[in-house]
Structure formats: structure tokens, C-alpha cells
TrEMBL record:
Molecular functions (GO terms): kinase activity
Annotated Gene Ontology cellular component terms: cytoplasm
NCBIfam families attached to this UniProt entry: PTBA
Protein name: PTS glucose transporter subunit IIA
Keywords tagged on the record: Kinase, Phosphotransferase system, Sugar transport, Transferase, Transport
Length: 164
């Protein structure tokens, strides 16, 4: 009889919808940086309302100076980028109110960025919000994207990560 007392349990990470909205595949995002997965594996949400909240427990890696994106380091080492809208860097921070700073510890569901969706709709290419694992091509993790079509902030799992 063999005992596996020291065998490490495979770690799984669930990444939740950071906002309410329609879930679409990353390939449907009308931007080659995202739809060709240049930034990494992921999914996108077409937001209906609300603030961007943390999809995991983790640490804020970076908040873009133009406030349109936030990076989070999850406990399993996954680096999650939430990019609010497309071509929103050109807004120079208008329409965004950031509630966190680099180095902050965050919990799933914690408010990260308030967004003026009407302003974004009027002044940016799109409100489609990609959620991407920027280090998905490194390491020994497999990322499985949801088949769900509607995301509820903090409730709908949009990506599951597990060790291979």
C-alpha cells in the first residue's frame, strides 16, 4: 500500500466576472491584440452596468496611468489584466475613478474602478472589457474559459485555472 501524504493537491483558481454583462469569447473582441491572444488567454464581457470589481483574491500589480486597466496577481501566480473598453487609453483617465493602488491586497468582489459607461460609449471604440491572463503561456497551468453567456459580478466563474 502506498500513501500519498506528501503529494501536493493540484491548485485550482476560479476567476469570477468582474462586472455584470454578456460574456463573449476573446476571439470575438474587435482588436487583434486581444482576439489573436497576443496578451494571453482570456474572455471578454460587454458590461451592462456597475463598477469593475476584483475577480479573485490577490494583489494589485499595476493600475494604468490612464486608469483604463488594472493588473492583479492571483494567489496561484496568474497575472490577470482587466482592460476596460477598447482604445480607452486615449481617454487619458476621463470616465474612470480608481479605488486601488499598486501593492494593495484585494478580495474577490472588492471595487477596483468606477466607470462612467455613458462617457466610454460616447468617446471610445467599444465598452467590451477583456479579462486576460497575461502569463498564460508560461508555466504549467491550463486555463478553461466558461461557456456561460451572461456574467454576474462575483458569482459567474469566467475562467478556471488548474495545474497540468
Amino acid at each position: 500500500m502506498v500513501f500519498n501524504f506528501f503529494k501536493k493537491e493540484k491548485e485550482e483558481l476560479q476567476i469570477y466576472a468582474p462586472i455584470n454583462g454578456e460574456i463573449i469569447s476573446i476571439e470575438e473582441v474587435p482588436d487583434p491584440v486581444f482576439n489573436q491572444k497576443m496578451m494571453g488567454e482570456g474572455v471578454a464581457v460587454i458590461p451592462t452596468e456597475g463598477s469593475i470589481c476584483s475577480p479573485v483574491d490577490g494583489t494589485i500589480l499595476q493600475v494604468a496611468p490612464t486608469k483604463h486597466a488594472v493588473g492583479i496577481l492571483a494567489k496561484d501566480g496568474s497575472e490577470i489584466l482587466i482592460h476596460i473598453g477598447l482604445e480607452t487609453v486615449a481617454l487619458k483617465g476621463e470616465g474612470f475613478q480608481v479605488a486601488v493602488t499598486t501593492g494593495d491586497k484585494v478580495s474577490k468582489g472588492q471595487r477596483l474602478i468606477d466607470v462612467d459607461w455613458e462617457y466610454i460609449k460616447l468617446h471610445a471604440k467599444s465598452i467590451i472589457t477583456p479579462i486576460v491572463i497575461t502569463n498564460s503561456s508560461h508555466g504549467d497551468k491550463q486555463y478553461i474559459v466558461t461557456k456561460e453567456k451572461e456574467g454576474i459580478q462575483g458569482e459567474t466563474v469566467i475562467i478556471t485555472s488548474s495545474e497540468t
